[in-house]
């Protein structure tokens, strides 16, 4: 397997609500998509939104889940101020802050929010971590 992730697909309980959150609230660029799914262009990959039950059925697994899903998505930015800006944008779009942005023990600045389905996003500034040219 080659070291890359082509797409991240989130199983969501209300597709239209999640589309509004990511497209209008977080300003992610939406691609043309069939009505039962939504795709967003990210820098080097794509984000897909698909009904939770339909995604579970497609993978032949149970759609039931409770609590922490065991992973988070991360978005690295170029400054502490940008962390605060993205966190505020997410909250305005309906996100819930699970950990306020703050200095970290690894020398950065980060916070977490959860989207309408509880998926965790870490917004971080890590001065030692490379930020791609498209993000500068």
TrEMBL record:
Gene3D superfamilies: 2,3-Dihydroxybiphenyl 1,2-Dioxygenase, domain 1
Keywords linked to the UniProt accession: Dioxygenase, Oxidoreductase
GO MF: dioxygenase activity
Top-level taxonomy: Bacteria, Pseudomonadati, Pseudomonadota, Gammaproteobacteria, Pseudomonadales
VOC domain location: 4-126
Name the record gives this protein: Glyoxalase/bleomycin resistance protein/dioxygenase
Domain of life according to the entry: Bacteria
InterPro entries referenced in this protein's UniProt entry, alphabetically: Glyas_Bleomycin-R_OHBP_Dase (IPR029068), Glyas_Fos-R_dOase_dom (IPR004360), VOC_core (IPR037523)
């Amino acid at each position: 397997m080659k070291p890359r992730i082509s797409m991240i697909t989130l199983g969501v309980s209300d597709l239209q609500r999640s589309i509004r959150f990511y497209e209008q609230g977080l300003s992610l660029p939406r691609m043309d998509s069939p009505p039962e799914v939504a795709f967003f262009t990210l820098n080097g990959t794509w984000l897909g939104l698909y009904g939770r039950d339909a995604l579970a059925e497609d993978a032949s697994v149970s759609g039931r889940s409770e609590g922490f899903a065991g992973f988070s998505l991360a978005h690295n930015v170029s400054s502490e101020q940008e962390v605060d800006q993205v966190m505020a944008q997410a909250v305005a779009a309906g996100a819930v802050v699970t950990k306020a942005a703050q200095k970290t023990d690894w020398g950065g600045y980060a916070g977490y929010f959860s989207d309408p389905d509880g998926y965790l996003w870490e917004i971080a500034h890590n001065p030692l971590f490379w930020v791609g040219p498209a993000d500068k």
